[in-house]
Structure formats: C-alpha cells, structure tokens
Write a structure and sequence with these properties.
By secondary structure, the protein is mostly helical. It has a single domain, classed as Up-down Bundle (Growth Hormone, Chain: A), CATH 1.20.1250. Helices cover 76% and strands 0% of the residues. The protein is built from 18 helices and no strands. α5 runs antiparallel to α6 and α10 runs antiparallel to α14. The chain is globular, with a radius of gyration of 23 Å. It is found in: Cell membrane. Keywords: Cell membrane, Membrane, Transmembrane, Transmembrane helix, Transport. One of its GO terms (biological process) is carbohydrate transport. It comes from Chanos chanos.
Length: 508
C-alpha cells in the first residue's frame, strides 16, 4: 500500500519535535485526512492478535499451570504473577518514552520496534511454558519462570506500545479511527478465543483426566490411576510447550501481515519526529491531563475486575463449582460470545455515544458474576452466564480503547506546543492495564496461599473454597462499580468530541 500524504510539519518551539529530512521529502502536501482503506484496517487489526493470544493464554492458564502442573508453592506463584506483571507495567512507560525519542527510519518510527523485537518475544514465550526438569528446587523453579516472564513481557511491551500508538497514525478522522479500533478489537477478541482454544484444547485433556481421578479417589483403582495421572502430567507439560509453539508461530505471522499491510501516516498536530522533552517532564504532561487520568482509572479498576475473575475461573470451576472437566469449554463459550458481541457494541457506540455504551456493557457483567458465584454447579446455567459475561467482556475490549484517542486529541488541542507524546499516552494506558492484571493475580494467589491451598490436591478446605468464591465475584463487582464512577466523571462526551474534531481540522 502507498503511504498517503499528510499535513506539513511546521516549526514550533523548543518543546516540539524535529522532523527528519526523509519524512519532510515524503510528506509535502497539506491534505484533509481521507478514509482508511479496509485492507489497511484489517492488516492493522491482525497486528493486534499476538498480544491478546499470549496475554490471555497466560491469564487463563498460567496460574493453574504453575500450581497444578509445575506444582509450585502458591507463595512463589503469587510473587511470579505479581512481580512479573509489575515489571511488565514498569517497562511500558519506559518503552513509550524510548519510542517517542526514536527517529524515523525507512520503514517508519513505530513499526521497526514491532518487527525487530518479535523473534525475541516468540522465543521467550515458548520458554515460559517449558519445564526444564521433572523436579526443581523452589528457588530454581521461581527463578526460571520469573526471568522468562520478565523477558517475554519486556519484548511484548516493545511490540504492543508502538502498535497501540499506531492507531493515531493510520490516516482518516475520528470516525475512521473508531472504525479501525472496531476492526482491531474484533480481531483481538477472536485472537483471545483462538489462544484460549488452542491452549485449552491441547492441555484440557489433562485437566479432565485429573478431575476423573479425583472423582475416583476412594475407589480400588487408585494405584493404577496414580500411575496414569503421573504419565498424564508429563504429557501435559509437553502439551503446554506445543501450544506455546503454535501461538508463537501465529505471533510471527501476524507481525509479518502488519509490516506488509500498514504504513505510518501523519496525524494533525503530530510529526512522528523525536521529542525533546525530558522523561519526567513528558510524564507530568501526560498525567496532568484530567480527562486522560479519569479514563485511565476507569479502565484500571474495570480491567482488574475482569482479570481477577478471568485468572480464577479455572480454579473456581475445578475446586469450587465441580466443573473442572468443562472449564476450557466455558472459556470458549465466553470468548465466542465476546467475539460476536463486538459489532453490537460498535453499533451502540455510534448511536448512543461511548460513555453510555460503556456503562451498559460493564453493568452487564455484575449479575453474571453474582449468579455464577452463588448458584449450584449447573452446567446449563454456567453456559448462559458465560455468554452474558462474554458480551460484557467485549465492551471492555472495545470502549476504553476507542475512548483513548479522544483523550489524546483533547490534550493536543489544549497543548499544541507538546507534540508526539502519543506513545507515552498509550504506554501509560497499557501500564495500568498490566499492573492491574498483576495485582489481581498476585492478590488472588497470595490469598489462596493464606487460605491453605495445596498444589496438586484434589480437595481443599472450606476456607479455600470460600476464598475462590469471594475472589471470583464479590471483589470484581466492587472494583467494577469503582471503575464506573470514574467513567461517570470522564468529561469527553459526544458534544466535546465534535468540538475536538473541529479544532483539529482548523489546526491542519
């Protein structure tokens, strides 16, 4: 695809970015943004699949993998999940600043970060699911998974931060960017479904056999069952690696499609040049923009709520609901519902506005969680509630990411002398999402440790069951309500969006 010409770079003050000579030669005409071709939207959307495939496979399976497959102590697991995500979150703003400071190349400013870190991201993801020995000491096991977790998250930050920022540089106006976001979120939810399907169906056999063994625990077939369970454990460790290799190959292919199908375009009041602001000064500018702050915290609390339920779903189904043989199927139902719900939320977004739509979407999750947590082990009821929860999950995928460009545009029209801070805005957004996920999983696993969770055990004490129920529904519901309060005070409504659009058009 050819690169469309954008607005001429104009000399500003010291705080403004310089523009490389190659970019000046390439972008010489002053044009109103045209529509984004569908092919570019699709290629851009495909580029978002690796992050969702890998992060959601980790979100659904890493906790139960470390606890019941690696058979690591819950205390160590909590530190890996929390500190790994904390490290991941810390690297995002740093990567965002590094991307902002980088200059133009022949293939762009953002895309080189995506392309050159992909092979390292694939390798580290595969190693994250590899068990080097049948038995490892606690310290060696902790070090192995913590190091590979940090490496993978670092390389994924180098992929996802510039990729997220690329939304601002696809060309087109606000409506076209919203449309591209809709394509992206539809593909990302599908990627979540694909990742969970690949991982779940490959490794789900072990979890089903384990549930069967536990149901026969008092029978005379225990010795034979124990031997078969041990063999199944080894096969499952191999299965996790196979699933990781499959997702790694898809990760690489998606990167190739993005590279071949998307070229960076200039945006109003942006030059894709280097920023000259110091890191601290840039961060103060970003976190001082109140609409952005309220949007970030609304997204943070809502994301923590969903990730806490997601991270505990496998354990809840296995140990509290007695549906361990079916949890991978419930995951697929939930994510299938989310995939087909994206167009619905996109349509409602256009008709009702973003703030109204996100309230409707997030509120839908509350009764679903409450019913699943309080009901008896009824598979049909769990299926229905999983469909409702999946629809709500789709709104969290789409709406906050659709609202973020509006907050960035609002900042640009209010601070025209501060250019090219988009990667820092997006990196902080990703930071809070990832930090929230680490916080959710770390607190969950540490709570299970205090409650007396025993790795590999078939049955647990009532305190563990109660803890799982509380972590699965009451705590996420409270967090969702806090998030909705922040979204309520988010000031950019449809009227303000039109004002921002008019101001950007005048600035071109």
């Amino acid at each position: 695809m050819e690169l469309e010409s954008g607005a001429d770079p104009r000399a500003k003050g010291d705080e403004k970015s310089t523009f490389t000579s190659s970019t000046i030669e390439h972008e010489t005409s002053h044009q109103t943004p045209t529509g984004i071709p569908v092919s570019r939207k699709i290629c851009y959307a495909i580029g978002g699949m690796p992050y969702q495939m890998t992060s959601n496979a980790k979100g659904f399976f890493m906790q139960i993998f470390l606890l019941d497959v690696v058979q690591m102590s819950p205390f160590y697991v909590s530190f890996i999940l929390f500190l790994g995500r904390a490290w991941d979150a810390i690297t995002d703003p740093l990567v965002g600043y590094a991307v902002s400071k980088s200059g133009q190349t022949r293939i762009g400013k953002l895309i080189p970060w995506i392309v050159f870190t992909t092979p390292f991201g694939v390798l580290s993801y595969v190693m994250l699911w590899f068990v080097p020995q049948e038995t490892m000491s606690s310290s060696v096991s902790f070090s192995w998974y913590f190091i590979w977790s940090c490496l993978f998250d670092t390389f994924m930050s180098c992929y996802h931060v510039p990729y997220s920022s690329l939304n601002m540089f696809l060309g087109g106006d606000q409506r076209e960017r919203d449309s591209a976001t809709g394509y992206r979120m539809g593909m990302e939810v599908f990627a979540t479904l694909a990742g969970a399907a690949i991982q779940g169906q490959i490794v789900g056999v072990y979890h089903a056999k384990r549930a069967q063994f536990c149901s026969l625990q008092n029978s005379s077939e225990i010795p034979g069952n124990m031997s078969r369970l041990t063999d199944s454990l080894q096969n499952t460790r191999t299965a996790y690696v196979i699933a990781a290799v499959v997702l790694g190959v898809l990760y690489f292919l998606c990167c190739v499609v993005l590279f071949l199908g998307v070229k960076e375009q200039l945006a109003p009041l942006s030059t894709l040049g280097r920023i000259h602001l110091p890191y601290v000064t840039g961060m103060k500018k970003v976190v001082g923009h109140m609409p952005y702050v309220r949007l970030v915290f609304g997204f943070f609390f809502s994301s923590v709520a969903f990730q806490m339920s997601q991270g505990n779903l496998a354990l809840f189904c296995t140990h509290a609901a007695g549906l361990g043989s079916y949890f991978q199927h419930l995951v697929l139902i939930l994510l299938t519902s989310a995939t087909f719900s994206i167009p619905l939320w996109q349509m409602m977004l256009v008709r009702l506005g973003k703030k109204t739509t996100i309230f409707i979407g997030l509120m839908t999750e509350i009764p679903a969680l409450a019913i699943i947590s309080g009901a008896k082990s009824s598979l049909p009821l769990f299926i229905v509630m999983s469909i409702i929860a999946g629809a709500s999950l789709a709104s969290l995928f789409l709406l906050p990411w659709s609202m973020l460009p509006d907050a960035v545009d609002d900042f640009k029209v209010k601070n025209p002398s501060c250019m090219d801070l988009e990667p820092m805005f997006y990196s902080c957004y990703v930071f809070f999402n990832k930090f929230g996920g680490g916080l959710a999983l770390g607190i969950s696993t540490l709570s299970l440790s205090f409650a007396g969770y025993k790795p590999g055990a078939c049955h647990h004490n009532p305190e563990v069951i109660t803890t799982l129920k509380v972590l699965f529904a009451p705590v996420p519901i409270c967090l969702l309500l806090i998030g909705l309060v922040f979204f309520y005070f988010y000031p950019i409504n449809e009227k303000r969006r039109q004002e921002i659009k008019a101001e950007l058009q005048k600035a071109m």
